[in-house]
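During the second year of the project, the team shifted from modelling isolated chains to modelling whole assemblies. The rationale, set out in the original proposal, was that interfaces cannot be judged from single-chain predictions alone. As a representative example for this report, we include one of the complexes processed in the last quarter. Its constituent sequences, exactly as entered into the pipeline, are reproduced here:
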Amino acid sequence: MRAAIYNEPGDIAIEEVPKPEIEDPNDAIVRVTYTAVCGSDLWFYRGLSDREEGSRVGHEPMGIVEDVGDEVTSVTPGDRVFAPFVVSCGKCEFCRKGLHTSCVNGGSWSGANGGAQGEYVRSPHADGTLVRVPDRHADDEDTLRSLLPLTDVMGTGHHAAVSAGVEAGDTCIVIGDGAVGLCGVLAARRLGAERIIAMGHHDDRLELAEEFGATETVAARGEEAVERAQELTYGGANHVLECVGAASAMETAIDVCRPGGTIGYVGVPHGVDEEGLEVYSMFGDNIGLRGGIAPVRAYAEELMADVLQGTLDPSPIFTKTVDLDGVPDGYRAMDEREAIKVLVKPQR
Amino acid sequence: MRAAIYNEPGDIAIEEVPKPEIEDPNDAIVRVTYTAVCGSDLWFYRGLSDREEGSRVGHEPMGIVEDVGDEVTSVTPGDRVFAPFVVSCGKCEFCRKGLHTSCVNGGSWSGANGGAQGEYVRSPHADGTLVRVPDRHADDEDTLRSLLPLTDVMGTGHHAAVSAGVEAGDTCIVIGDGAVGLCGVLAARRLGAERIIAMGHHDDRLELAEEFGATETVAARGEEAVERAQELTYGGANHVLECVGAASAMETAIDVCRPGGTIGYVGVPHGVDEEGLEVYSMFGDNIGLRGGIAPVRAYAEELMADVLQGTLDPSPIFTKTVDLDGVPDGYRAMDEREAIKVLVKPQR
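Output from the structure prediction step:
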């Protein structure tokens, strides 16, 4: 089979690799029909985080179950499934409390399981990891495009909104106009926020934010952006969704958060250690920080129900579609901000 | 009148200063009968934070109202009152929501208002700042000793417990065996915590923690302490009270917090900026951070009710009592950890 491989910063290649096989009675093999390139993939693509040379990439699989181990009970061959960006057993303390990212038996797609940007992927703990799409929706391409973001960015945007404590009638600020930020806007609207102020740097993405429910947008940078957001909220919002992860974005989040408010942060932190959090501002203003790596498995059924009933559709974030051979070009397009998020179709 | 003055690190002196007068119709003048030396005073005493030379010190006043401005309605001369470590108007958005430390009209005791370690202090915004002790308790010295910590450390320990989300039946870890940590133990017990693990470095203080309700104590340091706390909790507690403020204490708090748990932090951050928060650990484990400078005014009535009915008594933290001339010795005793907290009686 063929799959995407990371060689070095800027170099993703499609290579022949062994097709995965059932190794454990809890495994399933999934023929990958849809997957995506993630903003977090750009960190290693840009050389900003380490990644093993020659390693498989991709962590947002959707496809058709081809084979299952003897102990798998929730899916059977032929089922349409998708899976979050981490593997989870579904049975441990943390899975039971909805914190699947801390699963004691969990793991990532990039290790022995292979990446999702390939023709097949092996899912360990298939019962705990895979989410089955109901049969009547299993072959509708539009629905599948709308469900695919639930593997990562939509669940992550939702985690930001939940962590920031967004409830009906609230005013919130969403930092970042990437796929996660845009999904954060959708999530905040879904939770009933009355005012959603989207902050970003790209006019086209902020336009999409408005389509997604942002009531106002701030396109300025730095101090000017902070001032504008504070003006709009008369001194900051009680709920801030930090959807970037860069130290500067966290700083902005703290600066636009109202005293006593909460920042829901979901962007993988980069540079925050070096530059330090503005702990004094947070301390003086009693600003809370909640969130972290999003347990998107916990949100999958709830968000899927909305997608299937037609009240949630994050698919406009996919502004480019490629086949497996197009994956390197997909990384390039996202790196150059030509695409918000790239949908990949490895197999029919 | 006479008052304590900060000269330079290690040098506190008692000097003659002008007696304060009513300057604004919302002011009150309080004859200070009890006050205290705070652990946070040690930061400037040790030269670890800046403080203006010749400035008045002390921020935990209790005493008798001597005079009030024309617009003061809640207290009259002769009333016994105490006040939190910050001034608050009681009327703005933040005071109304219980975040008096973010009062838009607020301020500290160390500026023009004079410090609390002196014979008299001027309270601006007397209606919003001063807490009146009911007459029937107003002259009972034991009661007043028990109420005095509500000016700062008891409200701060309570804020740590509330911020950490401690509720009935919970297991929590309290980091720090200073006055705030000990009050955190009292607060956690008061909120119904079932297991309270106190971590510190001083056997005598950990004994007091046990008297206050700690069910277990950890006296080890560094990695050993973390391992011991994790063993006791089978992997960390969901509720951690960080009552120190040093970067190493925050690191310990993160290390002993269970994935998905919450750290309530109230220690004034020192060195956290330089050393950086372990944001990656927090992110990966979805550990929340709540708290900050404690709005103790918000908790005063609730905690006073418990003190007056005899179910809350933080007064054992006062292990040394001095008069105004003894204040420099009080700082020395706290700096050398000879006293947990020093009670000061500037006037009869």
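The domain at 155-291 of chain B is CATH 3.40.50.720 (Rossmann fold). The longest strand of chain B covers residues 28-37.
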